[in-house]
């Protein structure tokens, strides 16, 4: 049987509610490995699993320091301790961001699977039990090797690059947009993959071999009708940020006032990445914006474009070099 490490970071999957109908006011981080094994004895038929509590922070508190600690932990598990795969339990609010960071920075082709839940462990019809079992099943699958970091909820397997949370409480919250899921775990208890990620990740990523302990600051600016650009002006004046990602309207567009402010930002040495608030579709270079020296974010969601830009700035100081990375990743 495969040797799988489950790294527990809390979240709804580990939560205790006031009663079985408490689906919103529960307390996370109440249940750990021994509780999971007792409630889900089927785990022992899937893999040789070791549980370890790690960090135990709310997903709303997760920051880049936690990402770096987790990257080091996962790398040690896979490269030094010789686990065949890793499962990470995580709160769903920022799960996709932590997963994408590891997708770009872990130097291993072994399965790394993130899992969470939309209903607490104690809830009536909780998804926590089956989600965890299915995540372990995927991590123990030979077919999951070299597919980058995966996210498993609701019997659906997604790539960390595309997946995002799309609903506050529904079980089918995690979707991969128009590009779709990588595969499924069906009632035959087998893992079925139907496509392979084509963008660079894990052992194919140049960021997987970098050593780092901090990042320059990158902010996300959300565009809307009548946006004044004043927030961008404040970012420039503060001198605290080296990058800005715009969650633009439509195909990554911004208001005239924002455009003027963003031009000042690039002139002051701040990198600007254009992405879209739409959720699907590519943001690509367009003639009206050509003179402004913005980076096009392709189809990365703003929160993921931010992560890629943070990593790019560890190595590159030129817009063209960073644009090349966004084209490949």
TrEMBL record:
Molecular functions per Gene Ontology: asparaginase activity
Domain L-asparaginase N-terminal: 3-198
Keyword hit for Ubl conjugation: no
Domain of life: Bacteria
Biological process annotations from GO: asparagine metabolic process
Keywords: Hydrolase
InterPro entries referenced in this protein's UniProt entry, alphabetically: AsnASE_II, Asp/glu_Ase-like_sf, Asparaginase/glutaminase-like, Asparaginase_C, L-asparaginase_C, L-asparaginase_N, L-asparaginase_N_sf
Active site: 12
Gene3D superfamilies named among the record's database cross-references: 3.40.50.40, L-asparaginase, N-terminal domain
Record domain Asparaginase/glutaminase C-terminal: where: 217-326
Keyword Metal-binding: no
Quaternary context: Homotetramer.
Similarity-based family: Belongs to the asparaginase 1 family.
Protein name: Asparaginase
Organism: Pseudogracilibacillus auburnensis
């Amino acid at each position: 049987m495969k040797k799988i490490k489950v790294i527990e970071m809390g979240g709804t999957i580990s939560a205790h509610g006031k009663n079985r109908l408490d689906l919103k006011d529960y307390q996370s981080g109440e249940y750990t490995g021994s509780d999971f094994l007792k409630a889900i004895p089927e785990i022992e038929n899937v893999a040789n699993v070791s549980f370890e509590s790690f960090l135990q922070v709310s997903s709303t508190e997760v920051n880049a320091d936690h990402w770096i600690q987790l990257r080091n932990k996962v790398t040690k598990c896979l490269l030094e301790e010789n686990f065949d795969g890793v499962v990470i339990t995580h709160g769903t609010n920022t799960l996709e961001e932590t997963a994408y960071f590891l997708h770009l920075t872990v130097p291993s082709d072994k399965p790394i699977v993130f899992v969470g839940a939309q209903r607490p462990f104690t809830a009536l019809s909780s998804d926590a039990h089956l989600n965890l079992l299915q995540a372990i099943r995927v991590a123990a699958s030979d077919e999951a090797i070299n597919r980058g970091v995966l996210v498993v909820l609701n019997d659906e397997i997604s790539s960390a690059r595309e997946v995002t949370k799309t609903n506050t409480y529904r079980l089918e919250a995690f979707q991969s947009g128009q590009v779709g899921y990588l595969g499924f775990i069906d009632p035959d208890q087998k893992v079925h993959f139907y496509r392979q990620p084509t963008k660079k990740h894990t052992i194919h990523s140049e960021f997987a071999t970098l050593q780092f302990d901090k990042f320059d600051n990158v902010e996300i600016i959300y565009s809307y009708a009548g946006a004044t650009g004043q927030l961008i002006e404040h970012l420039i004046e503060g001198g605290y940020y080296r990058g800005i990602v715009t969650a633009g309207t439509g195909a990554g567009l911004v208001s005239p006032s924002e455009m003027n402010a963003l031009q000042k930002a690039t002139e002051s040495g701040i990198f600007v990445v254009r992405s879209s608030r739409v959720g699907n579709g590519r943001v690509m270079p367009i003639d009206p914006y050509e003179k402004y020296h913005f980076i096009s974010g392709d189809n990365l969601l703003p929160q993921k474009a931010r992560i890629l830009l943070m990593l790019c700035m560890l190595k590159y100081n030129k817009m063209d070099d960073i644009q090349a990375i966004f084209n490949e990743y």
